[in-house]
Write a structure and sequence with these properties.
about 100 residues; rod-shaped; mainly alpha
Length: about 100
């Protein structure tokens, strides 16, 4: 069965009709059309929300990974500074020993 043709030669696909003004529709058909439109709107909304939820989850994951990364980096820097401070104290101790041995 071929699709009905318009004057321009193209097929009339999914023409939108107003159920309230269409004379050949029964109340049951109108109710069914309203249910289908509502379901389509809900699916579109869910799809949009799903996309936003994915973006939000990725953002939260990136922030969390950043916090952990920064924490690990700062802890390693603290260890480095602690080791540097220990080396500085040892160098001061050696220098004071050299000064004492040179003075005697």
């Amino acid at each position: 069965m071929a699709a009905p043709r318009e004057a321009g030669g193209e097929a009339a696909v999914a023409q939108r009709i107003d159920p309230a003004r269409e004379p050949g529709l029964s109340p049951e058909q109108r109710r069914f059309m309203a249910q289908v439109e509502l379901a389509q709107r809900q699916r579109a909304l869910q799809k949009r929300l799903r996309g936003r939820n994915v973006l939000l989850a990725l953002g939260i994951g990136a922030v969390t990974a950043g916090i952990y990364g920064y924490t690990f980096y700062s802890v390693s820097q603290e260890r480095f500074l602690d080791e540097l401070e220990l080396e500085a104290e040892a160098a001061r101790a050696r220098a004071s020993q050299r000064e004492r041995s040179a003075a005697t």
